[in-house]
Amino acid sequence: MLGEALLALTSAGGGAVVAAAGTDAWQGFRRAVAHWLGRGDARIEEREMERLNETAAALLAGEEVELERVRHLQQGIWQARFTLALESMTEAERELAARELASLLAVHAPPGTAPSAPGGVAAGHDVHFTAEDGSVAAGVINGGVQIGPPSPPGPAQG
User: Fold this and answer.
1) Among 9, 2, 1, which Cα is nearest to 120's?
2) What is the pLDDT of residues 18-44, one digit of tens each?
3) Domain-embedded: residue 9
4) Which of 35, 70, 62, 59 is nearest to 49 (CA)?
5) pTM metric for this prediction
6) Quick one: which of 13, 21, 27 has its CA closest to 82?
7) Is 15 inside any structural domain?
8) How far is 27 from 29, CA to CA, in rounded Å?
9) Computed from CA positions of residues 139, 29, 17, 3, in that sequence, does the dihedral angle turn out positive or negative?
10) Domain limits for position 31
């Protein structure tokens, strides 16, 4: 099983695949991802290109109502592909591959989808922080922030 930093990296990779589909960055990004996953095997690389093309087609053909579900599904699929690839490697191979993946995302992924600084997480949707017992939780915010006591629970459903 991968550690937290590598899981954050694979999550960023899945998010970057979804964010890049249909953009100007897509062609270079998908080639770089297929090459990374192929690890020097042209047949695997070609298969990954086909999978990436299928992902882009699914995302671009998705109807507005279903698009968010398709996005989440595809992000999970690609996070799993990155995770499985890293898990199948030796520790030394994994360290090198993780650096290569982080570099690939930094160079090719659309802005806002590359992983953040070591130990951090980049997210393309809502992130919820919770702090308890007088502690503080925070992140880099590119949007609105509300600070205050939690909302009281709604009426009991019954």
Assistant:
1) 9
2) 999 989 999 999 999 999 999 999 999
3) yes
4) 35
5) 0.69
6) 13
7) yes
8) 5
9) negative
10) 4-108
